[in-house]
Write a structure and sequence with these properties.
Blueprint: E1 2-4, E2 10-21, E3 24-32, H1 38-50, H2 62-72, E4 73-74, H3 79-83, H4 87-103
Antiparallel strand pairs: 1-2, 2-3, 3-4
Helix pairs in contact: 1-2, 2-4
Length: about 100
């Protein structure tokens, strides 16, 4: 279930049922996009470009949004964790990152 907090840049994702990945179980993951720095943005952009995908607009790139979300997560997770979630959970987290990026334009 998607839950946007009142604090800009924060998002809490609560799973409808616990999500298991690599012997870890997640009931919720918190994201604090506002804790990230400009160097994080540049590093993500380079990582995405190095994968062969060009980033013209960060908020349009799904890969950029997923890596951004992974860096903003608590507990800290990798993008592979998000990539292995159901499409519903994946999309909600991607959209939270996208909303953050478009709200800062």
């Amino acid at each position: 279930m998607e839950k946007e907090t009142t604090n800009h840049g924060k998002y809490v994702h609560e799973f409808k049922k616990p999500f298991k990945y690599e012997d870890k179980t997640y009931e919720k993951i918190e994201f604090d996009f506002s804790k990230l720095k400009g160097r994080d943005f540049l590093s993500i952009e380079k990582e995405v470009n190095d994968s062969g995908e060009l980033v013209f607009t960060a908020s349009i790139s799904t890969r950029f949004c997923i890596i951004l979300a992974a860096r903003a997560s608590a507990p800290q997770i990798g993008g592979d964790v998000i990539e292995n979630m159901s499409i519903d959970d994946f999309s909600q987290i991607r959209n939270a990152a996208r909303r953050f990026l478009t709200s800062t334009d």
